[in-house]
Amino acid sequence: MDRTGDERAMRAALALAARGPAVDPNPRVGAVVTDPAGRVVGRGYHRGAGSPHAEVEALAQAGAAASGGTAYVTLEPCDHTGRTGPCSQALVAAGVARVVFAQTDPHDAAAGGARTLQAAGVQVEGGLLVEQATALNRSWTAAVTAGRPRVVWKYAGTLDGRSAAADGTSRWITGPEARADVHRLRAEAGAVVVGTGTVLADDPSLTVRGPDDVPTGRQPLRVVVGRRDLPAGARVLDAAAETLQLRTHDPEQVLAVLHARGIRTVWLEGGPTLAAAFLAAGLVDEVVAYLAPTLLGAGPAVVADLGIGSLAGALQLHPTDVTVLGPDLRVRATTVHPPEGA
Fold this sequence. Notes:
Elements: H1 3-17, E1 30-34, E2 40-45, H2 54-62, E3 70-75, H3 87-93, E4 98-103, H4 113-119, E5 123-126, H5 130-136, H6 138-146, E6 150-158, H7 176-186, E7 191-195, H8 196-202, E8 221-225, E9 243-246, H9 251-260, E10 265-268, H10 272-280, E11 286-292, E12 317-325, E13 328-335
Parallel strand pairs: 3-4, 4-5, 6-10, 6-11, 7-8, 7-10, 8-9
Antiparallel strand pairs: 1-2, 1-3, 11-13, 12-13
Helix pairs in contact: 3-4
């Protein structure tokens, strides 16, 4: 198949991958198998942890027609045995002559499929539409590379950086459009994290809710960080979602526990103190700020002291998106981490 045909098949595999669950310990992967004449004979995608991998599903659909054909896979075929067997061996057993994949597998335990395929005489090509494939699994890739979940800090504040008025009132700084957007993005996270102070002050539900304010769809794990006991009637302890309290103030310990549970994205919604702890530790990867066209002049700041004494030491952010939501602005920005050893 020519380059145009290769790209067409890989785009079809990417579209299949996008059907997989966005929140899962495993990546979203799609596969398309063509016969020696270039006709599509099998399609598959990974439907979540414990289910057949995309390649296996596509090969099962293709049957004997896969022999001598090409497999297009959005992620390098795995080379390890977990809940399912290695996809590299399945492709070899099916008699596939050529494998084209997009993203190299960054996971140490699963990588190596390309080498196994080449050793078996299969023609292997990697890197086709790699940017699109990596973007599809941004949080998973970041988590397995860094050994911790990707952390997104969300806050709502005024244009002068206040999270509440001087009397403590904070509902609602932003409008309904911004709040609906928070629920949409919260649903993409494996866990939503706050401190005990937020629970005691605001009694939040921390669930994903629809327009009628009723919990809807898959719910992220609710995580409360801090040593103080929670009131028995706190809404975060209701049956709407699972809740985990971590009696620590150490952000690295929090992320280690969540990573061990297969959490790939953390939605950090804590108050100024918890946000400052994660930021000061260099453990925030993206900031999602909802800014109301309001000035207060006094009241709690959106983030506590970061220990930065000069402009030269300021934490740098790279803006990636600015969107108007009703009367408010949503600004998304990634943190700029200094090089190791700097």
